[in-house]
Amino acid sequence: MIERYIISLVRKRLAMFPAVTLLGPRQCGKTTLAQSLTDTYFNLEAPEEIVRLDATWPDIMKSDRLAIFDEAQHWPELFARLRGEIDKERHRNGRFLLLGSIAPSLMSGISESLAGRMAMVDLAPFSLLETGRINILWRFGGFPDGGVIGPPEAFPVWQENYLRMMCERDLPLWGLPAKPTLTKRLLQMTAAEHGSILNLSKLGQSLGLSHHTVESYLDYLQGAYLIRRLPPLHANLRKRLVKAPRLYWRDSGLLHALLRLDPDGDLYSRPWAGASWEGFVIEEIIKARLARGDSFDASFFRSHDGWEADLVIDDVRGREVIEIKLTSAPGQEIIQRLTKVATMVGGNLKTVICRIAEPILSDDLQVTNLPAFLSSLSPVVT
Asked: Is residue 160's pLDDT more than 70?
């Protein structure tokens, strides 16, 4: 079994809080990770498991063993019960681990009953730091059963069935009012807009919906870990800046299934390959930083006269301006434009991430490949 890098952060948070909620998309490995920590496990999606937990509750509360409650939103009574147990012994940490995909009932239960008593950790599908298989991971995405760990022939059948289940069951269950056919169209249209500045009016016109309705639907997709709306950098410049977010699909395998990539097709020849690579790199960087437990802000920069940076990271080191290219030989023009943008936004670190074989490093500039860049972000939880 591949050890998840984020497990160090989970252990750290359990040492600090009575309870931790591990959130992430369905089928990303939450249950497998949790069960590596303890065998006291309850799947509350099954009614008989709720009965078993209710019957053994006093013993579970007295035990020093970590208890896992999977799909906690299916038993709303749990949150109030846990609050009472935690408040009896506030000094006891590392008692409960809740698992779930983002669902309104889960988040409502946490915010109403467990605020201040619980930490939340996001688990993503497998990352490059965990698998080391960059081409396979980019093509198939990071879901364990989607081809990156299991048989490659799982793609795109697994992804198509995953998305069908999201449209027909999970998203409606979580409150999305759209019919499955409309949701599927929305997924396909957002995939076609991957890497673009979000235009709600354009999406709304194509779907016959108002831009307010489209925005609310995208909230559900983002809550389900399907898409990321990367915000623009707010900088005090004389230039007019793009103020709408950029739209990305978080898992490249789901994106490629929606874009009808042939399992054995040439990924590099597709017209959207550059945008796909850009989103893949951005997601890998964010995954690595979250696994470290970093505090950071991620954004992009674009002015109306064409100056841009694909990713801007603000953290304790300052501001890193990152340009992402699907090339093995970045030209001097790329570096010159990056330097100009970094000066404009006050960036003290400049990075070009491409397919170069050997990184080129200096004090404030690096031209590097993704594995080398991520190796400097290996999870060190403090």
From this structure: yes
